[in-house]
Design a protein that fits this description.
Length: 165
């Protein structure tokens, strides 16, 4: 088992040591936000180094007494910069907007929300495999506060795994 683990680690390091750019990617984003705990994610580079990322998010809470389900749509512009000499490893900054609707049996929790956010993070594309990984932070400022949870501001972050094509 040790040999298998070492061989797997060596393959991952070898694959991670060579990377390249990509045009489009689709995958899953896991976030800390109440409006997008799990999201389908699509990212496309409109030029180098500019990209657009879109997320269709979902969150549900039936345990804390709130009894809500949330659906969201977010979009962000990201400008990418290389990190040192590591090919395929980039950091990015940008901004975006989110629209969400919370469905609940309780009036104080349900409603439409809209917000804007700056974003920043890192993105890494494996060279020998069609996968990219990223981590980001999106501190969201709510302009329309329909849901009673996070009025005004919410610090949202996430990690994403995508298939590239």
């Amino acid at each position: 088992m040790k040999k298998f683990t070492l061989a797997l680690a060596a393959l991952l390091v070898a694959g991670a040591s060579q990377a390249q750019d990509y045009k489009n990617s689709i995958g899953i984003r896991l976030g800390s936000g109440y409006y997008d705990m799990v999201s389908a994610s699509f990212k496309t580079f409109i030029s180098q180094p500019a990209a657009l990322e879109f997320n269709l998010g979902f969150d549900s809470d039936k345990f804390a007494g709130d009894n809500f389900t949330n659906l969201s749509l977010s979009g962000a512009y990201q400008h990418h910069f290389p990190i040192g000499s590591i090919q395929g490893f980039k950091w990015f900054v940008g901004g975006g907007a989110v629209l969400s609707n919370t469905f609940s049996d309780y009036d104080e929790v349900k409603g439409f929300s809209a917000g804007i956010f700056p974003t920043g993070g890192v993105d890494y594309k494996l060279k020998n495999a069609p996968f990219a990984f990223s981590a980001d932070i999106r501190p969201t400022i709510h302009i329309v506060n329909g849901a009673g949870h996070y009025k005004g501001f919410y610090a949202n972050g996430g990690v994403t795994a995508r298939y590239t094509f």
